[in-house]
Amino acid sequence: MASLALGVAFVLWALWSVAATGFVRIPVFSALAFRQPAPTRIVESGNINLNRWIEAFGGGISSRVSLTVPEEVLTALLRSADSSDGLGDVIDFSKSQIAVEDGALEIFLPFKDAPTAITALLVPSADENGLHISAMEFRIGSRRIPKFLLRNLVDRVLRLVIDRVEDEFGSMATIERIAATADGLVIEGVIADGALSL
């Protein structure tokens, strides 16, 4: 009897989990478990000219520089990302966005062929090897997903944005610090040898 109850509980949990992702509509379960995913707030795409946000520390010529990339620009970089590796067949990049939320980046990636989305909460950092992202939480639809299941996909998507930022900023400075702030993604560093002074 106990094994039967355990089996029924497992089946109910599995149905609930699948329904919560939004990939499959399961009568009763979907109505209870699934909520249409939405980002924390809507972020419109902005001007991608990163040089506009590069500043010398303290004004004038300085060996230290800072780049503040607003969430509107991060969203524009994400939407214009080259998804030639097949990601564009799965993710609707035209509706994807990045919002800065409580020291973290919220990545919202809607699927093309399903009424659901991946929502990832990530924390950026930097060291001598460049920019890094650590995962706090992944969701598909209303269902929280173990990090290892989505890490590779989200890394591939975010790399499209990070590589562009590193190309722009890393060509003129050695990156020392990165942080998500209310103003956007702030990257600080020291002007590299041979780079033009600001």
From TrEMBL:
Protein name per its UniProtKB record: Uncharacterized protein
Organism: Candidatus Uhrbacteria bacterium GW2011_GWC2_53_7
